[in-house]
Amino acid sequence: MAPVQVKKICCIGAGYVGGPTCAVIALKCPDIIVTIVDLNQARIDAWNSKDFSLPIYEPGLEDVVRQARGRNLFFSSDVDKGIREADLIFVSVNTPTKKNGVGAGFAADLNYVELATRRIAAVAESSKIVVEKSTVPCRTAESMRTILEANSKPNCKFQILSNPEFLAEGTAIDDLFSPDRVLIGSLQTPEGKDACASLAEVYAHWVPRERILTVGLWSSELSKLAANAMLAQRISSINALSAICEATGANIDEVAHAVGRDSRMGPKFLKASVGFGGSCFQKDILNLVYLSESLHLPEVAAYWRQVVDMNEYQKRRFSKRVVDTLFNTITGKRIAVLGFAFKADTGDTRESAAITLVKDFVAERALVSLYDPKVPHDQIWLDLAEAMPVTPSATIQKQVQIYGSALEACKNAEAVVIATEWKEFKEIDWETVYAGMNKPAFVFDGRMIVDAEKLRDIGFKVTVIGRGERL
Ligand code: NAD
């Protein structure tokens, strides 16, 4: 296979990664036809909706889709046709943590990757470049190659590339427009390098060449896990220090600022919080833990495991602080939880810290008033039912209410808990909130976004992560 000029791309998986990534490729490469396919018809219908009610919320995404959809960007549930017509196929399907069986709770569930790969082998009538976009354990490309070679037609040859995605939800479009780097891993054979060059040409439509890194397949696969593990490790490190701050009177903001001024470290990702969430950090670290154990490296596994354990500890510590501060009981008390998404500027709730907080408050028999500007109410009920499988849904619905604004959610509450750093929570009319709450009125800032002094002047009793001030 000599380097091919990519003319038609198919992306299997129209989710948080496949959708935005391939929409941006279509926008930036008007000469390439991009078809994003998914088995989930409802998702495809939403991508194709006339009023652009897209299935995911991401700033700037609608604008990209408006420009490219129908021109050279298409969404379809005809997976086979998408595969057949493409010369390059992204596999961007979900790779959740396995729930049952061998490696349950740690290993990546590669079932979706395998099914997509088998479909490619069964349907393809010509040679293709197959690109792992999903985050996968190191050496997954080898399994994909074995499956493709064993099942494909004799005239079909496949080159497998690894091209992990580094976008962050909430800033996905900016990240895709100007990525820190695009990583492409290939076998170091002439054919592998040709395929790598073909994909690099696609990105070179808008990404400077020096930001397109080409490496070996296994390095590329491992780099994605390593990047997420090290980002999460930074958060767990600052959160561990926040506990020491609370016990000593040191201020985590000041500590983070001082530490981040070291040019070897830099200031980013040093914000203490109630804990990291999202579909990737925990899953990818657990994946690394499982990989390390499989490679008989128990000390390495234990090292990474601690990053996740610290995150769980931070969430539990925060819930306990709420209960302790509210005179050791929240039974029957109304707690307003502001934010349900795992971070601002996304409607994604996967592994959101808010889920754990609400679960803890419900277990303590509190009444929870919830508000999030973007998360659909159905999603909230689904998440809570999943988080509390043995609690009857009638009980959950009796104790939890969802409101249409922060002000409504805070009415008659004893405490406000900020779980997501939505900008609008910084700008709430706190005087009105205070007037409508039971007294003493408490605020627990799990994202360090409020002006604690201003709130104290109003009359609130304020608790901020990583600050040891006494009330
Ligand atoms: P997602 O669940 O939002 O989307 C995956 C989509 O794939 C779903 O719509 C599903 O229906 C579809 N799908 C699964 N099997 C299929 C098949 N055989 N044929 C057609 N469609 C199929 O997941 P996501 O958040 O987009 O993540 C995808 C991958 O990217 C994961 O491996 C994830 O770890 C990785 N990743 C995610 C992010 C993120 O921020 N979400 C960032 C970087 C990497």
Automatic annotation (TrEMBL):
Pathway: Nucleotide-sugar biosynthesis; UDP-alpha-D-glucuronate biosynthesis; UDP-alpha-D-glucuronate from UDP-alpha-D-glucose: step 1/1. NAD(+) binds at residues 13-18, 38, 43, 93-97, 134-135, 169, 280-283, 350. Substrate binds at residues 165-169, 224-228, 264, 271-277, 342-343, 447. Residues 336-452 form the UDP-glucose/GDP-mannose dehydrogenase C-terminal domain. Pfam families: UDPG_MGDP_dh, UDPG_MGDP_dh_C, UDPG_MGDP_dh_N. It is an enzyme of class 1 (oxidoreductase). InterPro entries: 6-PGluconate_DH-like_C_sf, NAD(P)-bd_dom_sf, UDP-Glc/GDP-Man, UDP-Glc/GDP-Man_DH_C, UDP-Glc/GDP-Man_DH_C_sf, UDP-Glc/GDP-Man_DH_dimer, UDP-Glc/GDP-Man_DH_N, UDPglc_DH_euk. The keyword Magnesium does not apply. It catalyses: UDP-alpha-D-glucose + 2 NAD(+) + H2O = UDP-alpha-D-glucuronate + 2 NADH + 3 H(+). It comes from the Eukaryota. SMART domains: UDPG_MGDP_dh_C (SM00984). The keyword Transcription does not apply. The active site is at residue 280. Its EC number is 1.1.1.22. Keywords: NAD, Oxidoreductase. Belongs to the UDP-glucose/GDP-mannose dehydrogenase family. This is UDP-glucose 6-dehydrogenase. It comes from Neolentinus lepideus HHB14362 ss-1.
